[in-house]
C-alpha cells in the first residue's frame, strides 16, 4: 500500500481525521472484502495525484470497532469525506476512479 495512504485506528482518528488541516477521504474497509481490494489501486493513484490537497486514509473495520460503530458503518467499502473536523459527505460502495474523484471534489467544494 502507498505510503501516502494513512492508516487510521480508533486511537489516531481524532488526530489524523478530525484535526487534519487537509480535507480527508476515509475508506472503511476489511481485507476479506473484494470490492475494498478493488478500490485500493484507485486510492493509491488519488493519494499521489491529490498529495498536499486531500489526505487519503483507510480504516480496517475488523481491527477498529469504535469509530465504524460511531458512524453507523453497515457496508464496506464506505467512503467518507471530512473537512475541518466534520463529516461532509458519505458514499457506500466501490466507485470507479472518475466517480470517486468527482465525489471528493464535489464534497470539498461544499
From TrEMBL:
Pfam families: Thioredoxin. InterPro entries: Thioredoxin, Thioredoxin-like_sf, Thioredoxin_CS, Thioredoxin_domain. Disulfide bonds join 33-36. The record marks 27 as: Deprotonates C-terminal active site Cys. The active site is at 33 (nucleophile), 36 (nucleophile). One of its GO terms (molecular function) is protein-disulfide reductase activity. Keywords: Disulfide bond, Electron transport, Redox-active center, Transport. One of its GO terms (cellular component) is cytosol. The record marks 34-35 as: Contributes to redox potential value. One of its GO terms (biological process) is cell redox homeostasis. Coiled coil: none annotated. Residues 1-109 form the Thioredoxin domain. NCBIfam families: thioredoxin. Belongs to the thioredoxin family. This is Thioredoxin. The lineage of its organism: Bacteria, Pseudomonadati, Pseudomonadota, Betaproteobacteria, Neisseriales.
